[in-house]
Amino acid sequence: MQIDFMVVFSYWQVLAKGLALTLAFTVTCAILGSLGGFFLSLLRLSKNRFVSVPTGLYVELFRGTPLLIQLFWIFFCLPVVFGISVPPFVSVALALTLYMTAITSETFRGALKSIPSEQHDACVALGVARWNKVLYVIFPQALLRAVPPLLSNVVSLFKESALISSVGIADLMFVGQNISNSTARPVEFLTAVAVIYFLVAFPLTRLVGVVESRMLRRYAY
Amino acid sequence: MNYQFDFHFLTGNWGLLWDGLKVTLELALISNVVGVVLGFGLCLLTLSRWFFIRWPAQLFIEFFRCTPALLQIVWFFYCVPMLFDVFIGPITMGVLALGLNLTAFNAEAYRAGVQAVPREHLDACVALGLRPWQRTLYVILPQALRTALPVLMTNGISILQQSALVAIVAVADLMYVGKSIATEAYRPLETYSLIALIYLALSLPIAQFVQWLERRQDSAMAR
Q: Most buried by CB count within 10 Å: which residue of A3, A29, A161, B87?
């Protein structure tokens, strides 16, 4: 069998389009999901059980089931349940956002919990009001600490977004598989797609390390 | 919402679902064995003194960590038979893809544990005249395993969930069976919900156990 990677280059425009769509989904869902995750983490720490239990359940549900199922559920079942037609782009973005919300809420919760209890005590000693404590003492530190794990969440979202190809969204994975099927050259195209994913994700994971060490040095916690 | 739930169509399909569940469990369990064993070996390779051992091992890890699992699975199913001119059964192939993926993630999990073994222990090994393999097996491995256990188990759960991806290359696991039942019976809502609950029921107890384990380790550290 002849392996010739030069073929890949003649399809670069299609692959670039696929990559653009993958990135668009990743960025949109990362932003929406991070915001959602932040609010969800606050709700989960609530003292009211009617708030904290359902949000905990939501997180467990989305972390305990494969993303593929979530995707299929939202794609096939949401229209059935509500009797409306949802455009594929919307349902896929919704699935990724809900997934991202669940995993980032855990990240934020970890960051909020990592604030040492001495700081809470200090706030009491200094007579800082409850909301001032949350706004000026807890949040700034927690948000900073959440940045590196949040970035790795984005990387995993980027990788997981390949699943949307299975419901027919023309992202990088879909395009790669399509070309490899139609040209009967899976080795070249699937490898090329893998390299593209790697080239995007690898620098991001390095960035996580850089951000982490820089913050460690600067804030020395 | 005025949807009538109807689970009757499932009555004839329990056997199918059970078979699918068995395939899923088989994939997840064997991949975990592969990942836990090879992960430790790979971790040792990345900590090697020689650049030519360290570097390929690191590249292997990064490649598996930075590309989608779906792509890895598709790649193995399409490209391995072509490149090496071999035919491998679908379940073995699934185990191969998932197991190597897990190996990369577990190697990273072990690393912290191996590096946390105090310098004095290694000196003690020299003093006691232990051979390198004895040191690795009896001194480093138990300690690394203990530290890494929560992460290893979390990775194990995630491989159980990633194993659903083999449905896309038509391995008859739980997800695949569910998908075909859903299409046949025109009942996506019931089937997918049921499948989701099965996956949840499998991973939730392990996740709870990991949380308990972590709490225990934290309190052991605090003492």
A: A161
On whether any CB of chain B is under 8 Å from the CB of A67, the answer is: yes
Q: Domain ranges for chain B, please list them.
A: 13-222
B59 at A interface, C-beta within 8 A = no
Q: Which residue from A minimizes the CA distance to B81?
A: A187
Q: Do B204 and A64 touch (CB under 8 A)?
A: yes
Describe the crossing of helices A88-113 and A49-64 by its angle, rounded to 10 degrees. Answer: 120
Contact B75 A76 (CB under 8 A): no
Q: What's the token pair of residue B70?
A: 């779906």
Provide, rounded to the nearest whole percent, the portion of chain A with pLDDT above 70: 98
Say yes or no for a CB contact (<8 Å) between A66 and B65.
no
Q: Which residues contact A118 (CB under 8 A, 6 or more apart)?
A: none
Taking CA atoms, A191 is separated from A165, B141, B196, in Å, by 17, 35, 32
CB proximity under 8 Å: B 6-25 to A: none
Instruction: Read off the pLDDT band of B222 (50, 70, 90).
Output: low
CB-based contact A194 B82, cutoff 8 Å: no
Is A191–B75 a contact, with Cβ atoms under 8 angstroms apart? yes
Q: pTM for the whole thing?
A: 0.88
Q: Helices marked H in chain B — which ranges?
A: 14-46, 51-65, 69-84, 90-115, 119-128, 132-134, 141-162, 174-185, 188-222
The nearest alpha carbon in chain A to B196 belongs to A65
Q: What is the CATH number of the domain that holds A117?
A: 1.10.3720.10
| CB < 8 Å from A in window 155-184 of B | 157, 161-165, 167-168, 175, 178-179, 182
- The interface predicted TM-score (ipTM) is 0.86
Task: For residue A83, report the phi and psi dihedrals to the nearest 5 degrees.
Answer: 60, 30
Q: Which CATH number fits domain B13-222: 3.30.280.10, 2.40.160.40, 3.40.30.10, 1.10.3720.10?
A: 1.10.3720.10
Residues contacting A101, CB < 8 A, separation 6+: A32, A33, A36, A37, A40, A62
Instruction: Dig out the tokens for B65 from the structure.
Output: 């960590």
Instruction: Write out pLDDT tens, residues B31-81.
Output: 999 999 999 999 999 988 888 999 999 999 999 999 999 999 999 998 888
A-B Cβ pairs (cutoff 8 Å, strict): 122
Q: Which domain holds residue A51?
A: 6-219
Instruction: Give chain B positions within 8 Å (CB) of A186.
Output: 75, 78-79, 82
